[in-house]
Amino acid sequence: MGNTVSCCVSPESSPKLPSRQPAERLEEFTSTEVSDDNTGPYLQHISDREVPDELALEFNPSDHARASTIFLSKSQTDVRDKRKSNHINHINRVSPGPLLKKYSSCSTIFIDDSTVSQPNLKSTIKCVTLAIYYHIKNRDSDRSLDIFDEKLHPLSKEPVPDDYAYVDPEHKLIYRFVRTLFSAAQLTAECAIVTLVYLERLLTYAELDICPANWKRIVLGAILLASKVWDDQAVWNVDYCQILKDITVEDMNEMERQFLELLQFNINVPASVYAKYYFDLRQLADDNNLNFPLEPLNNQRAQKLEAISRLCKDKYKDLSKAALRRSISVDNLIGVRHSNAVLS
Prior knowledge:
- The protein is mainly alpha-helical.
- Helices cover 49% and strands 2% of the residues.
- The protein has eleven helices and two strands, in the order αααβαααααααβα.
- It has helices at 22-30, 53-57, 70-91, 121-137, 171-185, 189-205, 215-230, 237-243, 249-262, 271-287, 299-327; strands at 110-112, 294-296.
- Strands 1-2 form a two-stranded antiparallel ribbon.
């Protein structure tokens, strides 16, 4: 090392610093202030530091797959109340009514055709509208913008009621509104899931609340954007003007522009986020007894499932062979030798 000072010294010769309690350290950090003459040391407070983008995305369910969806957390309060009520009714020996869920038996097997790649349209729309219903019912406040206010930008020529901003819509009303748009525009079930992703992304980015005064226009803007991003044959704004007869193209264009600005032009939906929303919607359906349609397994559907499983099996074999070939790195390898096991 020469005459230079080295840090590689023995532990015995290293100076022993007096240990301090965590409370003393916290008091020292919190009492640090910035001096006027900039002569003293300045320690930046943790609240002044910016959160990295990767860490911030983890708390946004529409951007990160590990964050829990907002609609599922908002529905848990009502789900717990329903379970408590069912438990009380069971104790009081009150008949719960006929069982609506089908179960497989030895003679009949019921399967669900709804998958993450091809969801059932009607059931998916019901779940998405139920998620919107819980967003409105269990909202924190009534934060909104004028572009989404139905009083300032009505969707029809019919007069808007005076209590339009105070009466929560029922689930049937929300479902009827969304179902009409999807039927007229011939949208797919995947588009409904992307609609919910954009809706929660808007509420997170813009710090808004979906409430009785703005839910129609927010849902309409999310459907408009999802149909253009997801479907190959997008629906134009003028097509929605033909569905909603009294809305103008200029109003649709302005709402779409502001919707994109509030989303910060982030319209990307990763596959992991899409899958998370799909399975959370299924969880929401199970919690609210909205079962996906089950059909008995017949010969035709059995042959279809067998063909799909055979295709997946062959694909898995090809991937395994390719991985095995890549793992062998020894040249001129003839065979694999196995050593004898010694049992004591």
